[in-house]
From TrEMBL:
Domain of life assignment: Bacteria
Protein name (database record): Radical SAM protein
Domain named Radical SAM core: residues: 175-428
A Gene Ontology molecular function term of the record: catalytic activity
Gene3D superfamilies per the UniProt record, alphabetical: tm_1862 like domain
InterPro entries referenced in this protein's UniProt entry, alphabetically: Elp3/MiaA/NifB-like_rSAM (IPR006638), rSAM (IPR007197), rSAM_horseshoe (IPR023404), rSAM_sf (IPR058240)
């Protein structure tokens, strides 16, 4: 028997599966099928679009689509599946068993600021099963017995049995080996005092639960044996809480030392994602030790993403978000102190990233002013933030936000003004994090547009790098930072020979206009440049 898994991509509060990431869920689905000796063919939705494969799947016994974006995002080289595409695939390939799984089964929207729609109302009759529970459980049981339940929650006993098998499909990813395997450590939220008003993590995954270290390592070993070289501990709502279930509900510093020591020499990239800043402050000395462990063994450019959401304490309280402005800043300071050290290329080892969310209960014009003021304080205190995500909330069924009658609507005028402020702020922060002359190794070309190519390093929330010439997609090269945008870097290929740069390349360097570039080329000299321009050229040649 044969099954086609279509990766429609997912983006959740605690998991990312948009290229170059590959989510745990699609690997688990593959592992469950392979456990039953069913041959698996893996496709991304982008492959379906590009190669016009819409009606080429009718000869499979199973078609499984896994998808769902429960947080809004912008993606460079992957676009999540939409409802019309799901209907199209299932309608044109009606012979196989048609199964839909993933977070999309809890509600559908692709846009921030909107409420999710109920999926069954949108799919008409073009499906056999919408698996609201763990799709791997359904796929493990359906081929062999009638004991399946489309609402059955995930089981780590099942996942630990099938995850090593599913590692094999990473080889079928169109970007292999330049992919990042998202690694699951836990599900649900470790908080005990209630959940954030908007968060889908406890709604979809229930009470907090963790995988044992030996099972995580077994999956990592299987990925390594399949030549996967890049991993991220992203499938966890609070990475630093991992191991509390095995340590009397207390922060577990030893499990991080054991984890990183075991795997640090098996992968080229080891990155992280989510962390709760309030948890860090409540467990300050232990968190300090864990952050030191991460910074010792990880790959530079790593991020601990803080779900701050707002610095307005009224908004924090009304939306059940733990922490305060003071605890947030103290956590940012700690990560900077330990992880802010730069590698030989000038890239910090580990920095905080923050999420700011709008459309929450209790928001006012003051909320925007408070957020601006605190961000400016962070910058003025010479602290670094690796990235700041500014989003409008998605409202999903069964979250507190969907059930309350309290007002929660984005002030479009203030939100637009705040986004304009962020262009200026992000530019300043990028200058601080990636100063002129920073080396960016192994950039991968992901997009060409308007005679520019856009590239990223593999990594967590990697910064986009623009180069002033189109290049072949997915080729690699080394670059050096020569200027900064609001959300991206301008780079030239490293090493730089100033005498070989053309007009366009010269004019991309900070402080060099097109007119100045013409003068350099005409005179074949840099002698007339100002001291500041000469200093910039010196930095990028270093």
């Amino acid at each position: 028997m044969k099954a086609a898994i279509i990766d429609g991509y997912l983006d959740e509060p605690a998991a990312l599966g948009v290229p170059p990431y590959i989510s745990p869920q699609v690997r688990y689905a593959a592992g469950a099928l392979m456990y039953n000796d069913i041959e698996v063919k893996y496709f991304t939705i982008d492959q379906i679009r590009k190669d016009d494969l819409w009606q080429s799947l009718d000869h499979y016994e199973y078609i499984i689509i896994i998808a769902g974006t429960t947080v809004p995002g912008h993606y460079l080289s992957g676009k999540p599946i939409n409802i019309d595409e799901i209907n199209k695939i299932f309608k044109l390939n009606s012979s196989p068993l048609r199964v839909l799984g993933g977070p999309i089964t809890k509600g559908y929207t692709l846009t921030g600021g909107k409420s999710a729609s109920i999926l069954k109302d949108l799919l008409k009759d073009n499906f056999d099963y919408i698996v609201e529970g763990a799709v791997e459980n359904f796929l493990l049981k359906y081929p062999i017995n009638d004991e399946w339940d489309i609402k059955e929650r995930e089981s780590y006993d099942v996942i630990n049995k099938i995850a090593p098998l599913g590692a094999h499909i990473v080889r079928q990813h169109p970007r292999f080996p330049d992919v990042i395997a998202e690694i699951e450590l836990s599900r649900g939220c470790d908080r005990k005092e209630g959940f954030c008003s908007f968060c889908t993590e406890p709604v979809i995954y229930g009470l907090y639960k963790e995988r044992e270290l030996k099972d995580v390592i077994e999956e990592l070993n299987s990925l390594s044996k399949n030549d996967v070289k890049n991993i991220r501990f992203g499938r966890s709502s609070n990475f630093l809480a991992y191991g509390i279930s095995f340590n009397d509900d207390k922060i577990n510093t030893q499990i991080f030392e054991d984890l990183y020591k075991e795997i640090h020499d098996k992968f080229d990239l080891i990155h992280t994602d989510n962390a709760n800043p309030n948890f860090i402050i409540d467990n300050y000395s232990e968190s300090q030790k864990i952050i030191e462990t991460i910074s010792k063994y990880n790959t530079s450019g790593d991020i601990l993403s803080f779900g701050i959401e707002s610095f307005d304490e009224n908004v924090l309280k009304k939306n059940k978000i733990s922490g305060s402005k003071e605890s947030f800043i103290k956590a940012i300071e700690l990560v900077n102190e330990i992880g802010g050290k730069r590698d030989e290329n000038g890239i910090p080892k580990l920095l905080p990233g923050i999420n700011l969310l709008f459309g929450l209960i209790g928001e006012s014009k003051r909320t925007y002013e408070v957020n601006k003021r605190v961000l400016e304080e962070i910058y003025d205190d010479d602290l670094m933030l690796r990235r700041i995500n500014v989003r409008q909330v998605m409202v999903f069924p069964k979250t507190y936000l969907s059930l309350t009658d309290e007002k929660h609507k984005v002030n479009k005028k203030e939100f637009k003004k705040f986004k304009e402020f962020m262009k200026y702020y992000d530019h300043k922060m990028l200058e601080k994090v990636f100063p002129l002359g920073t080396k960016m190794k192994n950039l991968i070309v992901e997009k060409n547009e308007n005679y520019m190519s856009y590239s990223r390093q593999l990594g967590t929330y990697s910064v986009i790098c623009g180069y002033p010439k189109e290049q072949e997609l997915y080729t690699k090269y080394d670059g050096v930072v020569v200027d900064h945008g609001s959300r991206s870097l301008t780079i030239l290929k490293h090493p730089i020979n100033l005498n070989n740069l053309d007009r366009k390349e010269l004019s991309m360097i900070k402080g060099i206009s097109k007119k100045t570039a013409d003068k350099i080329i005409f005179n074949r000299s840099f002698d007339f440049l100002t001291s500041e321009q000469k200093e910039n050229l010196k930095k990028i040649q270093g």
